[in-house]
Specification:
three-stranded antiparallel beta sheet; 9 strands; alpha+beta
């Protein structure tokens, strides 16, 4: 992954040089300030920055995932979607079950490793999603179906229902699915890793 260095009298001046050289919008650049030399009597102030292009980061994530899977002895293909928004890396491997793990545990661990790796390189958070053969999408649809089905039962019986423990991402799906409901509301209860969503009836 290419890293470029530029300097200028101000940070904006250095960024302008980067944009002109790389022919990219500022929003497509990851910029870290490396040093600042204060001006003196015969010396002008200078800011030095390091710049990485967004498209380079997107490709680096794909390359790193392939490297990790190869070290695990897995053969895989990776498709990248939504490059202009939040990149989604869909893995197709010869052992999807192993990559996903129980309730997506291994997939979550893989995402954490890659996220920390990229954070160390670019010095700031970068949003992306890793999925295995559309597991996340199928899981999301399954959780939405569960939320609505349980909500109907709670609305009818007026008895609250506690769902199985879930990670924060899955709990958020449940909360969002029922956020506009006029008959039930949701709350998260318990401590990690056993925190769960409770669906409760609203008073008439």
């Amino acid at each position: 992954m290419e890293k470029y260095r530029y300097s200028g009298k101000t940070r904006k001046d250095a960024i302008n040089k980067a944009q002109e050289d790389l022919q990219e919008l500022e929003e497509n650049l990851f910029i870290n300030e490396l040093s600042e030399t204060k001006g003196g009597l015969f010396k002008s102030k200078k800011i030095e920055i390091e710049v990485i292009e967004r498209r380079e980061v997107i490709q680096e994530i794909k390359d790193y995932i392939i490297k990790l899977l190869k070290n695990m002895g897995l053969t895989s293909n990776i498709e990248i979607k939504n490059k202009q928004e939040v990149p989604k890396y869909i893995i197709y491997s010869d052992n999807d079950a192993l990559l996903i793990g129980k309730n997506g545990k291994n997939l979550k661990a893989l995402s954490t490793i890659v996220r920390e790796y990229i954070m160390n390189i670019i010095g700031q958070p970068f949003k992306f999603v890793i999925d295995v053969n559309d597991y996340q999408e199928k899981r999301e649809q399954s959780l939405i179906h569960l939320a609505k089905k349980t909500a109907r039962e709670v609305a009818t019986t007026k008895v609250e229902a506690k769902l199985d423990s879930m990670n924060s991402y899955e709990r958020r799906i449940i909360h969002n699915a029922l956020a506009s409901s006029k008959k039930v509301y949701t709350e998260s209860e318990g401590e990690e890793p056993n925190r769960c969503v409770v669906i409760k009836p609203k008073e008439d």
